[in-house]
Amino acid sequence: MDDSNELSVPRLPFPPVTRSHILHCSYHSWHPKYRSITPKARLISLTAPFLAYLRADGIFLPPDEPDPNIDLSSTDTDSGIFSSTTTSTASDSESDSEPDTDPSTQWPELHQKIQSTIAELGGNVVPKLNWSAPKDATWMNATNSMECRNANDVYLLLKSSDFVTHDLEQVFDDCVPTLQSSSTITNADNDNTIPYHLILRKTIPALVPSLEFRCFVRSRTLLCMCQRDLNHYDFLPGLVPTLRPLIHDFFEEKLKETFEDDNFVFDVYIPPPHQKVWLIDINPWAPRTDPLLFSWLEILEMPDPHPSASRTTNGTANGGAHPNDEEDEGSDGGDEEEIFTPEFRLVNRDDPEAYAFNTPRYSAHKMPKDVVDAGVDGEAGLREFMGRWRDIVREQEQEREERGGGR
User: Fold this and answer.
1) Which letter does DSSP use for residue 174 in this model?
2) How far is Cα 365 from Cα 363, in angstroms, rounded to an integer?
3) Dihedral angle at the C-alpha atoms of 112, 115, 117, 122, nearest 10 degrees?
4) Residue 127, Cβ neighbours under 10 Å: how many?
5) In 19-77, which residue ranges form alpha helices assigned H by DSSP?
6) pLDDT tens digit string along 168-213?
């Protein structure tokens, strides 16, 4: 069969994604400008040794409580998930080993800065790098969430996250070179110039996930929005007449003319009593950003609203455009202006998304339950699991040999 006759998957009609746009969406780039409308957070510039630690294989953590009496020269054969204070057993002498040392000795000032910042923010923070939070690694945390109470909690999430690895290794994938006329990125085409930061955000007490929303901006117009938590909530449709104008006014006053790019995606949180909008994140206008309840093709093909009609009215949960019910006196109706209402999409009771709890998000990034259960018991549990696994493999090999010999 001629390959030329095979159907190719059409590409989404995205405008070219430049490296400058990706950098504009980095937390360290936009946070200083919007600090007053974001939850309390601290940014810590990351050093080359710490970035090398994040990129390295294996998950070795600093001692929980440094003790000068602890012998850090002990060896370990596993790139396991445990603190460097753990010592090896005599059985390890049969295997090749590497020194098990405190990795933070390569970045002691940064380690202390992270510890002190966590304490400054009340002892409970949520971490992220420039673009991504380690949401896919929460299964590694004792709290099964992104809440961290010490530096080791932060390191464990960052080292276990594919999302963070993407920030470190593939952040400029599918980007086109930036025009030299852009003043933002003299060296933006060089990955080594990315100013990586660790963002530690003070944990929001009693965070209500159902009140987080993702908003899509095209040509500096708020085009549509949807809930971020993919579950159905009976109370949300009744809040739409309150939430939609709040988000629209927030965009018009705070973001429309101040963000560097015409197209972008931003996330907000509107806690009770639904009077203040908090900016949570700004994301690239690119396929890598999850459109959630929309599809990117659907968003890209939405018609452009009339420039003078970018106003909003209260409406239904589905958020269609609503004509102005009142006409000026003497108007014949021929020049009636349609008021554009950004679509506000929610998960309806009968939508497949309403049953998302049956398939946990980011499940593709998780490990088998047996491995996780073994990890709960620390090094001893992991070694026991490995021993059982070797026995199973050995028995399977013997069975194959016996069946082969009987032929």
Assistant:
1) T
2) 5
3) -160
4) 24
5) 19-24, 27-34, 48-55
6) 998 898 888 766 544 444 455 555 579 999 999 999 888 899 999 9
